[in-house]
């Protein structure tokens, strides 16, 4: 069933229940690589699936739009979905198994447990989206326990999410290694995101300003600038050149704690959230 | 190393780190049964270990006094400990492996995750001991993930703890079956508890009033009484006959939700917490 063929001809099996998943995995060759997604797959997900396929004997993609990580019901409602196309992309990218559960399969009636990660989940996205990271940590703990993968792959675009998931998995002794994969970008620098589909043509044309701002701040850093406030101001200054961009936050933070830095003495994460009309985009750049 | 010999001669291996545990378990015969304890083992633990040994190929006992489930530092400080004797009891009872980690091994520097169970953890012990069940759910999630046992054994004496752990394991998709074992009692009816050691001789003589109260309420129920308040009053009345007993709560609750019942139409849990001097005892009785 999970036979290995040439990638183009690969057959992907779709399972929807915990029981089907368990049954399918009992026969799976190890190691198993997991790519958790919320669907509407793009080239960023393709890169994660291809990497998982290259590094593991079996690749599982989960497709689950997790209601617990959406604060705003309207945001959940408008999150784009196209399972048939997603399954096709999974097959093309080398996945062996797609787990596409219903909400009730992940959160059965009476579900009443949450996983909370502390300080690392508080600033930035955690401050902007209360409860978001509890929803992320809870669903990822469930997916990790259900799949029991040796490795799970996440995009660096969601840098804080990566740190939160790493902390959760390490703290709860879940034996799945959390692997970060570089952000995949459009030719003009815009980070791929399922939310990009909501941008109007004008907003889409304006959106690469995130990347330009990050690269400008990075250039300042490479030229020797070590003031956190100077780097944040550089991000603000570049974002201000784009009238359609409304910055929500800009950050130059410690990569371990995500606390804002006055002075950059070691690795740092530049990051930002910017609103374009009704669409919120994030991006980041790691300074080594 | 984990050879099977006659119970009396059984050798038990003690491991202290996650790495040693993983190594020891990699060679363990399946299924694995886990008995999580806070040490100071008594005949109640013996019964759990013996049952685990009978039902599994490998039996693991964890000994860890979990600081996160103690609200009061003094209560944590005075919790009785005797690891050498505990290990001897584990060996006698048929355990193969004892996991006795340090606090830092379970909660390494930077640990910052908690597992929270909702409504079922709120009344009774949850109301009396704020944060207690978050500590329980968190450490048990860690232990379950570390050991990966097929089954884990808990005493019915801690009835709400059992429900909280079941809910947590089911919700987080941890594939360890939670098995409840009947409360083991002294000949005079006192439920075995590590805390009994703190009772003065007078308090010890008074303590069986918990069991007498539960049996009196049970007798009323068997005679047809279905009023929750009448059963709670029966518990109060019997406890009032013992001047050393200070009731903290008495309860006649739904076994699924632990909400207090006006009228008992199905299974119910009679339970109570009673203070004797500085020692707090709990006990319960299931009505089918």
Task: Give your account of this protein's structure.
The structure is a homodimer of 288-residue chains. By secondary structure, chain A is α/β, with parallel strands linked by helices. Chain A has two domains: 7-181, Rossmann fold (3-Layer(aba) Sandwich), CATH 3.40.50; 198-287, Pantoate--beta-alanine Ligase, Chain: A,domain 2. Chain A is 38% helix and 21% strand. In chain A, the strands form two sheets. Chain A has a six-stranded parallel sheet, sandwiched between helices. A three-stranded antiparallel sheet of chain A has the order 8-9-10, covered by helices on one side. In chain A, helix 7 crosses helix 8 and helix 10 (209-222) packs antiparallel against helix 11. Residues 1-7 of chain A have low confidence and may be disordered. At the A-B interface, strand 5, helix 7 and helix 8 of A face strand 5, helix 7 and helix 8 of B.
Topology record:
Two copies of one chain form a homodimer.
Chain A: E1 13-15, H1 18-26, E2 32-37, H2 43-55, E3 58-63, H3 73-78, H4 83-93, E4 97-99, H5 103-106, E5 113-117, H6 125-128, H7 132-147, E6 151-155, H8 159-171, E7 177-181, H9 201-206, H10 209-222, H11 228-240, E8 245-254, E9 268-276, E10 279-287
Parallel strand pairs in A: 1-4, 2-3, 2-6, 3-4, 6-7
Antiparallel strand pairs in A: 8-9, 9-10
Helix pairs in contact in A: 7-8, 10-11
List keywords for this structure.
six-stranded parallel beta sheet, Rossmann fold, homodimer, Pantoate--beta-alanine Ligase, Chain: A,domain 2, alpha/beta, 2 domains, 38% helix, three-stranded antiparallel beta sheet, 288 residues, globular
């Amino acid at each position: 069933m999970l036979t290995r063929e040439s990638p183009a001809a690969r057959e992907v099996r779709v399972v929807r229940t915990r029981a089907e998943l368990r049954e399918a995995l009992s026969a799976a060759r190890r190691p198993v690589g997991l790519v958790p997604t919320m669907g509407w797959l793009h080239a960023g997900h393709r890169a994660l699936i291809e990497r998982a396929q290259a590094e593991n004997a079996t690749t599982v993609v989960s497709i689950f739009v997790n209601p617990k990580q959406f604060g705003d019901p309207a945001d959940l409602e408008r999150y784009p979905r196209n399972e048939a196309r997603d399954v096709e992309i999974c097959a093309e990218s080398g996945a062996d198994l797609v787990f596409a559960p219903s909400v009730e399969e992940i959160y059965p009636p009476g579900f009443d447990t949450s996983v909370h990660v502390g300080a690392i989940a508080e600033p930035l996205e955690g401050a902007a989206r209360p409860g978001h990271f509890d929803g992320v940590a809870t669903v990822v703990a469930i997916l990790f326990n259900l799949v029991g993968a040796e490795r799970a792959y996440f995009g660096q675009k969601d840098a804080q999410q990566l740190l939160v998931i790493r902390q959760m998995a390490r703290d709860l002794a879940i034996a799945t290694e959390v692997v970060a994969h570089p952000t995949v970008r459009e030719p003009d620098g815009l980070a791929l995101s399922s939310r990009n589909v909501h941008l109007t043509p004008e907003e889409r044309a304006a959106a690469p300003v995130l990347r330009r701002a990050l690269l400008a701040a990075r250039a300042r850093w490479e030229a020797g600038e070590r003031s956190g406030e100077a780097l944040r101001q550089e991000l603000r200054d570049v974002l201000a050149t784009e009238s359609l961009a409304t910055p929500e936050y800009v950050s130059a933070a410690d990569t371990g704690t995500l606390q804002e830095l006055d002075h950059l003495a070691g690795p740092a994460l530049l990051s930002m959230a910017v609103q374009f009309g009704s669409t919120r985009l994030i991006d980041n750049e790691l300074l080594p």
